[in-house]
User: Fold these one by one.
Assistant:
Number 1:
Amino acid sequence: MNDDEWIAILMQLRERREPCVLLTVLADKGSVPRNCGTKMIVGREQTFLTIGGGHLEYQSIAMARAMLEKQSTMLHTEHFNLGARLGQCCGGMTTVLFEPLIQAQPQITVFGAGHVGQALVALLSTLPCHITWVDERADLFSDAPQGVKTVHAEDPLDAVHAAPAQSYFIVMTHSHPRDLELTEAILKRGDYRYLGLIGSQTKRQRFEYRLAGKGITVEQLSTLRCPVGLPDVKGKLPAEIAVAITAEIIAVYQAAS
């Protein structure tokens, strides 16, 4: 590994707005797979470089991804005895520093790639946030902004389950039944930061009646933002609706930070 290779990788991840954990071997004693100063980078889906492989690396990756899932920002050190108990044959000891590099950026999942979805994602992509854009119709993603993760999903509910805790969800599909099942699944998760549903007050009342019949409580329904967007930002054009929703999201994440 070049001395600056890990720096270049971190810069690339930062440009892509991807959180990661930087692992550094702080101390080594006896026979170890990598010496003090060795670094590895763990993202949600990828890893870069290595601290020696085997169960040491496997456990370290699992610990790093648990930190990412919890959005932990605290440094952590872990001591590993590289003997039979860890499944390593080295027999030495090593200490690994876990350094989360997590920017305070919202994780936003947008369901729906219609006219309003197109306008909204174009606007959200200019903000410091991570966007996952979900629709069954893959051809609608042809103009997806750079850095936006598009998901062509036969079952968009999979994207609900895959989203990290404290996510922001915006539901605006081409189907009211689909909107209803997505809203139900997100409400039942309960660990979201924001849930917005496009539609009128009449749509909200219909959804509340149906969701209550599915066991959703009044307290849960009170967290649903529908009609979505700041009410002071009026208009029915896709761009106007997108501005209202984006403004509301900005207000929520600024209040949270």
Number 2:
Amino acid sequence: MDKKTLLIEIFGADIICASCANAPTSRDTYEWLQAAINRKYPNQLYKIIYIDIQKPIENERQQNIANRVLEDEFFYPLVLIEGEVIGEGNIQLNPVFAELEKYGFVGVDSYK
């Protein structure tokens, strides 16, 4: 069985969400999450993309999600894995890691 590349999408904007004072920017969250995933799950197949909700988006599904964020249905940054909402606003690693492991990701213990 071939493993498919898992899609992780981070929706955000350059300005910090008004409800997320003192939280990192969306782009900072994207970079931090990518680094954390690479450390915990080296050599796993995934693609992580950052989608700026304030810029034109060609993909219709992604544009619809961005519109929902802009209409305050979700806080940003918004993290989706394979189209499922995993976190919004102040993103935590444990729910992201738990979802990745549902897809068969096997983490390394960085404390050994």
Number 3:
Amino acid sequence: MKPNLKACGQALTTAIVNAALAVALMLLVEFAISGSFQAPAPYLWAGLLIGLVIFAAQFWRQRHLCRSCKTDQDSPATPHSSLHSDA
């Protein structure tokens, strides 16, 4: 359960930051084109959709990384790990 929560937190952080940056960029372009600083509803919906897509992808990725890291820690040392002095 803990790896899923960790993956969820990291994915949520990434999604919020990227969605906010996407909305800010859309508003900046809108301001450059029209000269007014309005936040039309489609931009907010697009930001929400971007956030959801990024969250889903990052959650899947982070969960996969957490699981593979856990299995690497659980597995015994490989023969090649003894060849490196920093391993």
